[in-house]
């Protein structure tokens, strides 16, 4: 991107500028807030009784509702980078509306990660307090933000993932009724995994509580 188009995007309000040492940076998964990354392992998900090991795998699988074999390969990986790598050569065959739904899909994936890992992921989100959360990326200034200065202290990007994480953090703060324990499926066509329409996702906490009632 040229400096001029960078400046135009900043003016148009799409791009954000962050000072690295004033924000919570999500960069390497082993760092303090690495668990906020979709690339973090240790936040397993369960969709329609199908185990999906990482949020990245779930997000990538959502590209291919019409290609269940590819979905299976993507979600069968322990390593999220491999899930993304498997997805890459098929990107041109993503669901035709992918660019217009991917934002909603990501928001839904994060809701699922929270519902099914409430203490760990929710705790990490709350530990960021009121600070901006920024996913630092080397290449991607849509989901994240890139370093633009020589000393590595200025990040510029749309930071859509960071902004979704902040949005979720604010929802947690207000969630006195535990509404976030349940996640409804997206209202988009063919929202399916391995040929089954994706159903309502429930937190394990809610399932355990319901079991105790009977
Ligand atoms: N963190 C991180 C990445 N970024 C992640 O990639 C996802 C977006 O994928 P796509 O929409 O297919 O480009 C999203 O979860 C974003 O956070 N990509 C990487 O290759 N390495 C990384 O360390």
From TrEMBL:
Q: What InterPro entries does its record include?
A: NADAR, YbiA-like_sf
Catalytic activity entry: 2,5-diamino-6-hydroxy-4-(5-phosphoribosylamino)-pyrimidine + H2O = 2,5,6-triamino-4-hydroxypyrimidine + D-ribose 5-phosphate; 5-amino-6-(5-phospho-D-ribosylamino)uracil + H2O = 5,6-diaminouracil + D-ribose 5-phosphate
Q: Where is the NADAR domain?
A: 30-173
Quote the Pfam families the UniProt record gives. NADAR
Q: Which domain of life is it from?
A: Bacteria
Record's protein name: NADAR family protein
Q: Which organism is it from?
A: Larsenimonas rhizosphaerae
